[in-house]
Amino acid sequence: MARPPKELTPEKSVEDLLGSKIRKLRLARGWEITELAAKVFVSPGRISSIETANDPPGRDLTLKLEQVLDAKGALLELQMLIRAEAFKNYAQRFLRDQAGARSIHEFSPGVPGLLQTAEYARALMAVSFTDNPEGLEDSVVRRTERQAVFDGGNPPWLWIVLAESALYQVHDRPEVMVKQIDHLLAMSERPYIHVQVLPLDQPAVPGSISLLTLRDGTRTAYAEGFHTGTYYQEPDDVDRLQRGYDHVQAGALDLDASVQVMRNARRKHQR
After folding, report:
1. All domains of the chain in start order, with CATH
2. pTM of the full predicted structure?
3. Is the pLDDT of residue 4 over 60?
């Protein structure tokens, strides 16, 4: 006997409202989930996750659903509301998936959170917490606690491309940078952590790119700028960011040369 569909509460969230509307439009046409999935070229499970408000569609998939369901712009409007709300909590889903990822590839203009010392993180975030010292300390603790993923029995494969400028820009005081670079060098000695330095004379991309491979093989991507970030799950979006990362990595130094650059930067901060 088929399990009854999940009861949605459209008044609860925009995700529920979107899922409810898609389900109603599908049923009005007498289509099974498998039929709608075939028309927009995704799996039935993907449609199910949308209708149950567990995983809302991205813009590209929403446009396809708009077309086949003749929704007259209603679905896209709801998807834009979800996107706007997501910007307020732009990193939450990404950080959750990052914690359980099988591999992480990242380009960063600054030392990424997974490799930051508490002192570096505190100096970096202090500008955003000038009137809230307790909030600053809470954020520092949360950021450093994320690094515990490397101390377990099945740590992720981490490959970082780091902009060279991050090694020379002083945050708070030179001693902070010395300890931060020491931490980078120490973490780089672990067999599953790799840091390549992108020289100053090589092209980069604006902001950071993080590529995740989850335990089930799913690939996702996250791009972040100043106080903005977007978590991408659609394959076309992930492929686009993968190409951006590949171009940046192609200009990076090899691992041994990168270690030497980090050591040189450390000596400069000791002067």
Report:
1. 14-88 (1.10.260.40), 92-270 (3.30.870)
2. 0.68
3. no
